[in-house]
Fold each of these.
Amino acid sequence: MIAAQLQAELAGILPAGDLMVDPSELFVYEFDGFTIARARPGAVVFPTSTEQVVQIVKLLAAAGVQIVPRGTGTGLAGGCVAFENGVIVSTSKMNRIHSIDLRNRVADVEAGVRNTALSDAVAQLPGGSAYHFAPDPSSQRASTIGGNAATNAGGIHTLKDFVSSNHVLGMEMVLADGTILRTGAAAGCYESPAMDLPGLICGSEGTFGIITRLQVRLVPKAQGFRTIVATFGRTADACHTVSKIIADGHLPCAMEMLDGSMVRVIEDAFHFGFVENTQALVLIEVDGIEELLDGQMKQIVAICSFNNATSLETSADPTRRAALWKARKSAFGAIGRISHSYCTQDACVPRSMLASVLEKIDQIGREYGLQITNVFHAGDGNVHPIFLYDDRDENEVQNTLRAAEKVLQYCIDVGGTVTGEHGVGIEKLHLMNYQFDRPTMDQFQRTKRAFDPDERINAGKLLPSEVVKVQILKPGRHMPQ
Ligand SMILES: Cc1cc2nc3c(=O)[nH]c(=O)nc-3n(C[C@H](O)[C@H](O)[C@H](O)COP(=O)(O)OP(=O)(O)OC[C@H]3O[C@@H](n4cnc5c(N)ncnc54)[C@H](O)[C@@H]3O)c2cc1C
């Protein structure tokens, strides 16, 4: 609970529906998609304007209360978990699209606009169906553009379209003292003058300030697509296929991989008729100028066959394509059919190491008696081992955390990174020192303090904090002290 006076002052800024203090409602805001870490916030506020954000931030700073920015809470690293009595500032009601400028291919949106809501709005305009906002995390129907920028979200088409920071041109952010920072390219322009502060803020996971508004790039959709589904009897063959396709100079717009257990989950849920005993499935898409696509598809099919694909399906049919991608994007949800709880890990490794990493994941799973299933963005080496466990069993929770740590350490050891796209949050805080050397960590800390000198915003996330001590991994859960 927050102090009665602070509650009254917040109520003076916000209408009743935009201030949440009832414990039975706050319960929902105890965690994000990383459900292992939980802490009840003192309050959740839903500002609807930048001016309200400024007033709220000033009030909370004066009261010495930690501020936790949140979009829609789909994050998978505990980034928007509030420490005891911290206040969550959710930008989810700041969801106006201020302008869509198709001539200059930019849009000006509030931070709480959902990812697909922008492309849907663009498609409604005359000539707009040819354009979209490209970043496409699988959560895109729910997650916000502010959250996408804060986590520098990737997605299925990152291989060709790149991560969110490549699509953010400008930004408005409220700093810890209430200053409004407006930075980035001038309206309608594509280049940031001087320092690229929006580039720096992307991926800062809500530790620099509260993003309230963004200017983003709109890009043309490809003219045509070909979708290829290849199944394999051996995971290593699928991994070699992925590396070979890139090594041969192809750039598919997406290249996703599902392991055998995931294929079975999807098959049970969607009945695609995939070959029985499939150990890996690779879903590949090429896009571009219609006339060139069949030739490119043939070359990729040849690579799959050479690497012992057990079945191959190619399609130019938009309905089939939509069904295949819907199945891929629904993969996380379908896990609910086989497990009480799950925890999705996220690392990026060199593509050439994929086979070895998957083998290691399997070995670690057996060591800890855990089932681990995999569905991931193979084309950019972004692995997502999904640990299946029962959160009512503390032993299984602990084993999941230990096994996840071992997997991430292995990924770092083979030249990979502690996170591919989900961010560090509190989940991976303890591995930051494993990945980065002292001078780099010190520079990260100095950068954080340049934006937020007193660590008032989201302290203890992404970087260890002197102000907020987080009890890390062993021996208990990731709970704030
Ligand atoms: C089923 C599923 C699939 C997913 N697939 C992908 C995927 O393919 N690629 C991917 O990258 N991620 C994926 N994610 C993770 C998640 O959806 C992304 O990280 C997304 O960008 C989070 O957006 P959000 O609005 O939910 O942010 P939240 O979860 O609310 O917050 C995430 C982080 O951003 C900060 N933040 C949020 N809003 C603001 C703001 N306005 N100002 C400052 N900081 C802010 C928070 O403090 C927190 O640190 C997936 C999640 C789920 C549940």
Note: The chain has four domains: 4-90, 97-220, 224-331, 334-425.
Amino acid sequence: MKKILLLLTIIILNANENRTLFFGNCIACHGDFGKRVAPHLSEVKGYYIMKYPKKEDFIKYISLWLLNPNKKNSLLPNAIKEYKLMPYLALDLDTLQKIATYIYENDDFGGLK
Ligand code: HEC
């Protein structure tokens, strides 16, 4: 029983960490507050999940994008035209993978969808 409780606590803490990282680093641009500066993450997720339905692929390609946002890798070329290319955020790979995991596992990206 104790082991199960410990395991549950670890899972919940991890999930919260991923969520905090996501909201801390992405929502300022990708949320839905006032003037749009980037497409909402639910829209972005839609494109990535269609192309990379498997969790490991999804995490890999979202992380790759974040390590090096550029026209060639973009799945949303029209978004670049509309909003300009996303800036490089200088986050480490481990953090990016946690954020990508949050995006894959959740549909709460703040604000309206
Ligand atoms: C400074 C504003 C800004 C921040 C912060 C930001 N983004 Fe973006 N992002 C953009 C803009 C603008 C676009 C649309 C243009 C583009 O695709 O480059 C975009 C596009 C994207 C795309 C689609 C890429 C493509 O074209 O295929 C993904 C995925 C993405 N962002 C994920 C994230 C994640 C995850 C975070 C947090 C770690 C984040 N972004 C933080 C501005 C931002």
Note: The pocket of heme C is lined by residues 25-26, 28-30, 37-39, 44, 62, 65-66, 69, 74-76, 79-80, 83-87, 89, 99 (CB under 6 Å).
